[in-house]
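Researcher: Next sequence.
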Amino acid sequence: MPVPAAAVFFALADGIGWLLVARALQGLAVGAASGAFTAALLATEPTRNRHRASLAVTAMTAAGGGLGPILCGLFADYLPAPLTLIFWIETVLLIVSALVIRRTPATLGTTGRQWRPTWPAVPAHLKRSFAAASSVSLVAWAVTALFLALAPSYVEAFTGSRNILLAGFVAGLILVCSGISQLASQLVFSSLSAQKSQLIGLTLLAVGLIGLPIAAATHTAAIVLTGGVAYW
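Model: Next structure:
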């Protein structure tokens, strides 16, 4: 179970080497498991509604990613053992999750055919649309990563506060809002085409991105938070 192992390495880390190993294990585990989790949810959705299952995966992934830094900030500021407690709790939860997963049918997702390695391929008539969608996703996550990297330090510099929960809240805000927005958009924008939805999303991303240099020039933390909400 590489993910619990990564959490243990984080808890025991006493130098940069441990952190690098833990981070590498975490990345390998997420890469190996995320596709399988998505496929399992698609296969077990009660009504076989693939669109709803896909929406749940993307929304919960974003919301979970946002809750992580918020909870870490809470633990670091207000609970004992700020550098280790959160990782030991994560280890326990991951072990429990692994035990729950073991109760799922062993045949879930099997096809009965022998696995053969193949190169990823996209049908010729879908290549243009696939390239466009991939590019939009790349830009969206690049902007998101930029915000996650800069926003906490901006707020700390502008407010003078070294409260870790505040930094975690700022970092998690964009992803929590993203998860909420993906669920809410099904009610508000369900009639829009994928193209129009992407155009609206890119416009809001641009607004949020423009907010960062404005916030830097004016030293206004509120603009950083507003930009984070606009990203969703």
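Model: The first helix runs from residue 2 to 12. Residues 87 and 171 are 19 Å apart (CA to CA).
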